[in-house]
Every structure is written in structure tokens, then in C-alpha cells.
Amino acid sequence: MSTITIKNVTKAFGDKVVLQAFDATFQDGEFVTLLGPSGCGKTTMLRIIAGFERPTSGEVFIDDQLVSGGRTFVSPEKRGIGMVFQSYAVWPHMNVFDNVAYPLTIQKVPKADIERRVARVLEITHLSQYARRLPSQLSGGQQQRVALARALVAEPKLLLLDEPLSNLDAKLRESMRFEIKETQKKLGITVVYVTHDQTEAMAMSDRIFVINGGVVQQSGAPEAIYNRPANQFVADFLGKVDFFKGEVGDGRIAFAAMGGQSVAYDGDKTGRVDVAVRPENIRFDDEGELEGVLETHYYLGDVDDCRVRVGEALVRVIADGYGHADRQPGQRVRLSIRSFMVFEDDGSLERMLEIQT
Amino acid sequence: MTKIGLALGFLLGAALVFMGYRGLMAFQASGFTSESAYTVIYHLSEAVSTAWEDRLSPELDLLSEADRDSVDRIARELTAQDADAPRGAVWKRLYAADLVGGPKVSTAAKKAVTSLSGDAAAAFRQALFQCLLDEDAPVPEKAEKLVGDATGAERQDALIQALFVSLGATEAGVTGHVNAFKKTVRGKAAQEAALSMIATGGINRLWQLIAGHGRTAMLIGALFMLNALLLCLLMGSERRWAFDVKWLVIMLIIDFMLVFQLLPVVYMTIKGLFPEGRLSLATLRRLVSYPLNLEALKNTLIAATVTMVLGTLIAFPLAWLVGRTDLYGRKFFRALFVMTYMVPPYVGAMAWLRLTNPNAGVINQWLRALFHLSDAPGPLNVYTLGGLIWVLTTFYYPYAFITISRAMEKMDPSLEEASRISGATPLKTVFTVTLPMMMPSLIAGALLVFVSAASCYGIPSIIGTPGNVNTVTTRIVEFVALGQKGMNDATALSVFLMAVALAILFVSDVVLARKQYITVSGKSTRPAVVELRRARVPLTVLVSLFAVIVVLLPFATILSTSFKIDIGKALTAPGNFTLANWRTVFSRSETISCLKNSLVFAAVTATVGLVIACVMSYLLQRTRIRGRSIPNFLITLGSGTPSVVIALGLIMTMRGNFGVNIYGTAYILIIAYLIKYLMMGMRTVVSAMSQIHVSLEECSQVSGASWLKTMRRITVPLIFPSIAAGWFLIFIPGFYELSMTTLLYSSTTKTIGFQLYETWTFTSQPMSCAMAFGILLFVGLLNLILNRLTKGEFSI
């Protein structure tokens, strides 16, 4: 179990700043996820913790010991960290046992101990019967578990995972997600997990750091981030969301694109705002405040994915799959919004959309 | 339908073999000295027949029947023919015999006769007939010089000759054939046979072709049969009897390689094992029993082994430093070390000879001055096995360097990072992860160095021969120069060298390739660069020093030597600087013609090679047609065969004894270059093509483009840089080739590489250095063009 303190870490490659003033403390036994689109700097942060990159400025402490910062630099092999790489990095010239035993061999652990500890970790990762196989004889999921076993065998207090599931197929990804989480709970180690997959982050993390353009946008528990995003980027990156431009007045927000239709609002924002609505938070409701015409709907089994034309705006509604047979394109419908998020219209939405499109 | 076609093809082949065999037998029984006799006989027969049918026969018909009989009788008597021989045959024979065996006719006499034409000539001939019939009839004035005062049979002879001269016996074409006839048909029996062939018209175009080219017919027939069988096998294994045009292409390439690559080496091996037609190890035993052979063998093995060890020991750390650390100027060093690859080997040898010649070597002079040694030769002596090894090492370590650094760049850096995070130090990681993962490439690189050093001719020919350190290659060339006497030893040494080279080719292409670890590389952030920290500056200095000694010093030596008058003195010595060497050497017509030869041969080789390379790339990468790997295999085999062996094999088989006679022509050089260097170009194009996903082409086809258009608009533009690179990769070594040229050149096909070698050995070292530096500049220029052409993607 170990605590990681990151103080004001900045990293630049040449002129390009990829990480800006990163400040955080990861607690003992915490499962922390660095989440963000590719190129946001999350992997760089992980590699700085591992010691593969040196921060341009700032400091990194592991258990109050300075490992990177100023003139101090502890090389990766001396940090006592376990790490799983995106490509697994399972050595093709060693069999499973030798791969997993490697960290112990380096530490010159007695042979009998190595056998015992490797056997245990192989059991945890369900690899016992493959100990003598070469990596080329294993499937992707099995190789991934070898990488995990190797990272765990030396009983590190800190485990780093760099998009470990991105090369697996969907089914396997889901089960591995569960296994990693279980293992972490069982061993009680601190985990720093890098991913661009928000579902993965939501499912596993105690705390998520959403990063964009080298800057931490928000950190917090998954539900807090999902329900109370700090800005438009975070709202957009986690889950589905539609943005509408609105104007606050008289306890309501009026939407120009919806021909001036409005919804009730009791918050403290005033003037021009960006309203973010998650499609699953909109309902067909005969008493609803908004009125429009159902344009299309796609029945997906569990849900019915609908588009409703409200004024000029197209509103996405994820409705219960149950009532799909009653819905006909062209129908006049009313909508009510269960909850929505309001952001000041400071132009950041436009900037964000510009980047994405 | 296809089956019938194949059967027909096979039968055609069998027929050709059979007829070729009959032709060959007929030729051997005929006693002609050359198969071209048949061609000559055919042409003469044509000429004689024409004369008979167009002129002689109609003119004879003008005589009265009795007169005609008399004239015919005379002709019969003169040719000693039976009474029942047809008139035409008799006259034709008489004409032919007169052409090839008649008494000499003076030019003046000939002129007198041939000055007549048309009706006058016909009248002249009628007059001659009259003279033949009547001993006392006056000889026509124009024929007087020929007939003179002869009487009886002599007179008849002379009159007949005048007749034939008048018929056009002196036409230029006919004279040429007559001369050729005299050369190829010798002896009474042979002449008799040839004459009756002409007389009876027993030679037609087909027979002339077959008997005149019996071996060629047999060779082509054998190829037809082989191709038909091979196609049967391919179609049979596919269980689909449909002909595919691609097979035609494959067969063409296979046939080419069979004739010019496999046949020579197989024939040579057989010659080595069956020197007198029986299996005998005598030739091979001579390898160890004959001191000259044994010494060459020992030198070669020692030199190649030590070069391999030294080269790999240099290449691995160098590849690691340049590829995986933050060494200063790593890109520059990389380019520099790779560039050495494109320098002709003999240039390095010349430079090191100038540097460490025991008497006048520059380094020796420095060392003597530095340590106040006596003026005795030394301390370094390039004319030793050690000197040879040193030069071989400086020249061949890039082969290992390129192989290793390529593998190192392909390796997923997270494999090393995983080791670091597991607690291993960088050094430990090198030994537990990097080195074992590199091992297959390392061994492949080492073997490549071994085989290149063992089959190198350029370096030992310049350093070893004067120092009496002979290697297998230099001995082979010497033995070949001895002619028939040396052939057995040359063959034995070649078989040995080839066996070593092919065994190594097998190990590195088959055994090691299977062990090559394919590492799934995820999107690794950036290549892991090991920080050298305190060692950064010292290591950079060390690498620079190495670069200076191995690359710059030799080049500088070549350049400075090229301006010297007295090579024993420093360039700065008073009056020792001259531009004359450059001027002389590049204004000599000999140099110019050699340069032209080299450019043409290399360009033809590269162009033909690239066409084959592109076709092969397409077949290998874009089709699943069966048999596509056979040409690939043969081409690989060809490039793995040492140059000297290829050349010797061609010498032994391409002088007509197998139906192909290209000895001493430019073709033999181009074919040799093609066999040796085709692989280089092909690999470049193949790997480029493998990197273009098929979907790019499929997308174009879906968009409505035809196959041809897709090739032109999508595939070729995408792989163009590689096509250009492939062309240069064949062109450059072909341009300065020495080892094969040494064995295959003739006075009209000397190349610049050979010219340089001759100039070095016999004329002037400074002039030779000027040529060498000129070649270096040219290769550098080509490199620059290539770089521009491919937008910086390729340089060699």
C-alpha cells in the first residue's frame, strides 16, 4: 500500500507541453483512473510515476520519498512498482513461468520461494495450467493475464496499468475488468489505471481524473463526475449528452433553437448558458414542458433511441424499449426533462466542439 | 482442354529434345568443326540453288539436246558422279565444289568476268558452253585470263570456273559463307558430306536450325517438358485444370534461373564430384592435399571467422548506442555506418594499403615518427592475414550493423521497460531481454558477415595477393586464369565456397527466420531512449573516433593519394601535388569506354531486375497462385551464391556446350549481375508492397478503376520510392562490380571496376585512387538523387 503525491508536475517534449501543473495525491489502496482522449497526457503521467519519463518540473513522491524532482531521480527498477503495458510486453523468448518469475529472479529470491509465489499468482490469474507455454501459444487475454501476474508477483504496493484492456475483445474486456478490480481489492494495493474508455473508468475506479490537453479537468468519484461535471468537456466525455444554448430569465431557461420553448430552472446561473441534457434523462410525458414531433426512432431492444424535432432543435431521447410499438414518426409528442446541467456560456463549448470536429 | 495443351507442350518439348539429339548426333558424325557449319551449308545451298534455277538451268536449256547432254556429261565427269544422278544435283555440286575448293581466281580476272551483266553475261555463258563442247572454239575475251593456254580437263575446269564466276560466285555474301565454310568444314569426308548436302538440297531451314543448334533445341525442349510437368504438378495439387497466365510469367522466370543459375552451379558441382565421368573424390581431396588449396582454405576460414566475431562485437554495441540511447549525433552516425555498405570493397582495401603499407604507409610513418622507431618497415603490415582481417572487418561490420539495428528498431520498447519496472537495471535488461530477443538477428547478421567476408574478392585481391595471403576467391581467379589446367582446382574451391555459403543461407533463411520473435507492438508512446548520462560524452567521443578511423580516414587517404605524384611522400611535400592523375585517368578513352560499359550494364541489369522484382512482388503479395515461391526460392539461392562461384559456373556452361553461347559478351555480365543482385531489388519492392494494405487497391476497384488503372494510380505511386530504391540497389553494386567481371570480361566488355583494378595493379596507384574517388562521388550523387526522388524516404 502506498501513497503517491504528485506536486505541480509539468512535462514538455521540446516546445510541446503535454502535461501542465498536475497536482494530486493518490491514497493507500485507492483505485485511481486517469481518463481522457488519446494524446491528452495521461500515459505520460503514468510513465512519469513509473520513472520512464522525467518531469520537466515538479515532484513525484512515493510514500513520502521523493522519486522524481529537482536533481533527484530514482530509476524505474528501484521504485518497486508493478506495471502492465498496453502491448502486454510479455517476453516472447521466455515461457509463462519465467516471465512471471522474472521480477523475483532479479531480487534473487530463493528458488523454492519463487516457485511458490509464482504458483500463487498464476492461480489468482487463472494461468496455472499454462506455466510452461510460450507466449506465442497463448491468446490475447491469456497474455494480458501473464502481464498482470508478472506485475503482481513481487507484491508491489503500487500497480500501474496502461490501457491494459484496449487490445481485447468486448466480452473479455468486461470479465478482465472485473478480475482486475477483484485482485486489487484482495491485495489492497494502490492502482493507477490509464484508459480512454469511460465505462471502464466508471466501473472500476474509486476516483477518476479526467484529463484533456494536459490539464486535469476534474477529479472525483465516478458518480460525482458523471452527475456533476465541472465543465462541458467532462459532461461530454462521460456518457451521452446533448448541448442546447439557452437564456435564463424568470426562473426558466428559454431555448432559442426550440422556438423559445422553455423549462423551469431554480439554479443560480444567469444570462446566456449551455444546457447539457443526457438523453436518458428525457421522458415522453403528456404533461411535459416541451413539445415537438417524433422524427425517427431506433428500437435497440433494451431501449428505444428516439429523435424529436423541437422547434429547429433535434432532441435525442432514450426511452424505455417497452413502449416502442406505440411510437410512430410524425407523431406530436411532449417531453419532460428529469435533470439537466447548466454551464455558463463562456465559449468553451464551441472551442471543445471545434477540437472534436 | 488444358490437359491437352499441357500434353502437347510436353510432346513438343520431347520432340525438340529428340530432334535436337538427332541433330547433335548428326553434327558429331559429320566431322564439322562447328555447328555453325549447318548454317553456312544452308546459305550456300540457297545461293547455289538460286543460281542453278534462275540462270544456269534456263541457259542450259537454250542449247540443243545433244549439246546439253554433252555439257552435262562433262559436269558429271568433273564431279565424278554416277550417271543416274539428277542434272541439277550434279551442277549444284559442281558449283559448290568450285566455290569452296576451286583454284584461286585473281581479282583482275574476276573483275573482267563480272563486268558483264544482263544479256551480255548470258551471251558470255553461252560462249563458254560452246567452248566446253568444242575444244577448239575461241575462248571469250573476258575469260582469257582465266583459261589461258590450258587444254583438256584443265581447260574444262577453267571454263566451268569462269561460268560460275559469271553466275555471281563473288557476291559479298557468298564470299563470306565460303570463308566460313572453309573454317568449319575441314577434311575430305566432311567436305564430301557437305557438298552432297548442297547438291541434293538435303538441308532445309528446319534441319539447319536443329542440326545447327542441336544443344539449344535440346535445352529448350527440356525446358518445355519441365514446365509442362511442373504445371501438371501445380494444377494437380490445386485440383483445378485451368491455365492461368501468371503461370507463364512464373515459368519464364523459373526457366531463366534454371538455365543461368541452377544449371551452372549444378554442372560445376557435378564436375567437382565426377571429374572424369566417374564419382571420384580426387578433386575434393586435392582441396586438402594440394598446399595451395589448403592454405587458401585455411586463410579464408580464419579470416571470415575472425571478421565475423569482430564485426558482430563492433556492430551490436554500435547498433544499440545509435538506435537506443541518447548518443549525440546518432542519426548522423547511423547514416554514416550504413553508407559504408555502398562503398566498393576494393576502395577500402586500397585505402588501408596506403595507410598501413609496411614501408610507406602513412600510419606507419606517423608511428615511427611518434615513437622514434628506426626506419625499418613496420610496425604495421597490411600484407598479412591480420591486415586482411582488419580491412574485411571495417568493410563488413555494417552488414551486421544494419541487420541488428533494423531488428532493434522493430522491437517493442515496452519489452525492455517491463524488465526495468520488474527491477532490472538497464545493463541487466540488455542481457536478459534485449540480447536474447536480438539473438536470431544477431546470428543472422554474424553469418551474413561471415559469408560476405569468405566470398569477398575485391579486398583479398588487393591486399592478400601482393602479401601472398591467398584466399579461396583469389585462388579461384588465379586457377581460372591458368586455363584448362587450373579448372579442376578452381571447381573444387568453388564447390567448397558455395557449399559453405548455401549452408549458411539455409541456416539464416530457414532456421533463424522461424525463431524470429514477432512482437506485437502496441502504440508505444515513443521509442525508449536509454539516457547515457555521464557516459554520454565519452561514448560519443569513442563512436566518433571509430567513425574517423573506419570511414573518414580511408576516404581521406583515397582522396589525398589521388593528388600525389610520389605516393611515398606526404601530399604537402613540396612539388608533390598534382591534378594530372585526375586529368589523365578521366581523359583516357579506355576509361571512358569502361565507364560507358559499366553504366550500360548496370542500368540494363537494374531495369530488367526491377521488372522481375515488381512482377514477383505482385505474385508474392497479391496472388495466391501456386508455384509463386519457386522463382522466389531460386532468386534467393542465386543471391546467396558467392560472386566468384556464379561467374565460374557461367564460364563453364555458357560457351555453347549447353546450347547457349554468350561467353565474352555483355550478356554474360548482365546475367551474372542479375543473378547476384536481383534479390536486393526484389526484397525492397516486396516489403513495400506488403505494407500497402490490399484494401487500398480494392477500394480503387470498387470505385470503378480497372486493374491496370488501379496499379497505375494507386499501387505504383505508393511503392514508387521503393521501386526507385530497388533500382539503385541493383544499379550501384552492378556499376562498380569487380569479382564477377574479373572472370567474365572480354576486351570489349571491360568495366570501370575492372579498369580500376588494372590501373591499381599495373599502372598507377594515384590514378586508380582518382578513379575510386570518382566512383565514390558518383555513388554519393546517386544516393542524393535517390533521396530527392523518394522525398527523403530512402537513401542507402
Mean pLDDT of chain A: 88
Low-confidence stretches of chain B: 519-525
CATH topology of the largest domain in chain A: Rossmann fold
Oligomer: heterodimer
Mean pLDDT value of chain B: 83
- What structural class do you assign from the helix and strand content of chain B? mainly alpha
Provide the structure class of chain A.
alpha+beta
Q: Could you name the CATH homologous superfamily of the largest domain in chain A?
A: P-loop containing nucleotide triphosphate hydrolases
Look at the structure and name the CATH superfamily of the largest domain in chain B.
Answer: MetI-like
Query: What is the general shape of chain A?
Result: elongated
Number of helical stretches of at least 4 residues of chain A: 9
Classify the helix fraction of chain B into a percent range.
Answer: over 70%
Q: What's the total count of β strands of chain A? A: 21
Describe this structure in words.
- The complex is a heterodimer of chains A (357) and B (796).
- With 357 residues, chain A is α+β, with helices and mostly antiparallel strands.
- Helices cover 26% and strands 36% of the residues of chain A.
- In chain A, helix 2 crosses helix 3 and helix 3 crosses helix 4.
- Chain A is elongated and about 75 Å long.
- Chain A starts with a strand and ends with a helix.
- Chain B contains 35 helices and no strands.
- In chain B, helix 2 (36-61) packs across helix 10.
- Chain B is elongated and about 120 Å long.
- Mean pLDDT of chain B is 83; it is low at 519-525.
- At the A-B interface, helix 1, strand 7, helix 2 and helix 4 of A face helix 20 and helix 21 of B.
